[in-house]
Amino acid sequence: MKQPSTQSVNSPEARKSTQPSTQPAKASAATEKQPIMIAGAGPAGLFMGLCLAEKGFEVQIFEKRTELISDSRSLGIHPPSLRMLEKLGILNEFLKKGIEVPMGWAHDGRDLLGSIDFSGIDQKPSYILIHPQNETEKILKQAFIERMPNGIQYGTSIESFTDLESEIALEVRDHQHELRTYHTPILVACDGKNSTLREAAAISYEGLNYPDTYLMGDFPVVASDPKEPMVYITQEGLVESFPLPDGKRRWVVKTEEYIRNPKVEELSQIIKNRTHVTLEANHCSMISSFGVQHRKASKLQRNRLFLVGDAAHVVSPIGGQGMNLGWLGAWQLSEDLASMNLEVTGPLKITNYQRHFYATIKEVAKRAEWNMKMGRKSLFHRLKVQIIRLLLSTPLTAKFLAGRFTMSGLSFPKLP
Length: 416
Ligand SMILES: Cc1cc2nc3c(=O)[nH]c(=O)nc-3n(C[C@H](O)[C@H](O)[C@H](O)COP(=O)(O)OP(=O)(O)OC[C@H]3O[C@@H](n4cnc5c(N)ncnc54)[C@H](O)[C@@H]3O)c2cc1C
Hints:
Elements: H1 6-10, H2 12-17, H3 25-28, E1 36-39, H4 43-54, E2 59-63, E3 76-77, H5 79-87, H6 91-97, E4 99-101, E5 103-107, E6 112-117, E7 128-130, H7 133-147, E8 152-154, E9 157-163, E10 168-173, E11 179-184, E12 187-189, H8 196-200, E13 205-220, E14 230-234, E15 237-244, E16 248-255, H9 264-275, E17 286-297, E18 301-302, E19 305-307, E20 313-314, H10 322-338, H11 352-374, H12 381-393, H13 395-405
Parallel strand pairs: 1-2, 1-12, 2-8, 5-14, 12-19
Antiparallel strand pairs: 3-7, 4-7, 5-6, 9-10, 10-11, 13-16, 13-17, 14-15, 15-16, 17-20, 18-19
The protein binds flavin-adenine dinucleotide (FAD).
């Protein structure tokens, strides 16, 4: 990736070397109103594109992949996101295949500890929707293309960009490996946790690797499975199980260390030891192991460049809120941009997204960390289990916990 270092950005040489008039017509017609440009058509980039299109902006997304992803990484869509999808007019599409989860169960491997009911939370809708990420991306892509028929270019990668103060010039390698220069008033980097745009802008990405490691796999439903999610807080460590579309369940177990080449038999044995549930190992359709990190970019905005989604933050996937957090950021940024004059000459003013979204990242990361800690082994396991039982059976604390699991009570952004 070419480095548009801060020194070169404002230098006369840099300006000269990226003069738009020498570039292909469509890409650089200086008099035309240029679209807002987005790097990446993952869930953050597509959602960002949709929010901007709803506000009347022209949008162009560049995606280096040529195909949609096939795996189901992110499953949970939380109430604030459901409200945004409703506002965008696409919630019904999600409800067609998604599984509405109004409650969950807690178990200690021997006995039920209680249930957690989302219907009493202070926001509507009051359920979590289970919807695999590959299906989510399909719907977002379709909705975006309906609004912006030529708005995504697949097989194209943003190679570098230069901040020209009043606009950004970017070099894009298209599917025929040709380099083209585009100009945009705003560039949104939704290019994932290894964001090369963030790196090129010299924005640091700080955080930590947690010691926690997990193994997960998808199995056909067995007779003892409830319809709802089940979280097992056992002496040997956490086990979670969630319903999936197509008669399957996703099982996640905490492991002592990262397992490089996971075996299905190993996973089903851990599940059996901790929960007494026997799964059909030969019907496991996906298995993978993962470690857990927390990262956040030191800046969300650098003049006309913005970081959104995993490019801006990564939180522990235990509790399943990372993608949702990216959507909240995208929503806020689209509100900010709609209220600003992007044609203004010179640098753009600091957005509310830059000013206030860190507090939301911090709060969501804290909640995800708490979920993870609850699943760790403890010397005081019996005491921990008694406390959980008590919290779940006391209406006030049960409501508080239900709120934390459903992304309630975040003070920013303000949603409709
Ligand atoms: C095991 C696991 C479970 C999870 N479960 C949940 C959950 O239940 N709920 C939840 O909310 N989150 C969950 N997450 C997190 C969620 O998957 C991520 O937060 C989400 O994928 C981030 O989306 P994104 O669009 O920011 O990045 P990505 O999905 O990484 O997309 C980035 C895109 O940018 C493209 N790209 C990169 N560089 C360029 C370039 N230079 N030019 C053009 N294109 C480029 C890439 O090809 C890619 O398509 C989970 C994550 C994991 C690992």
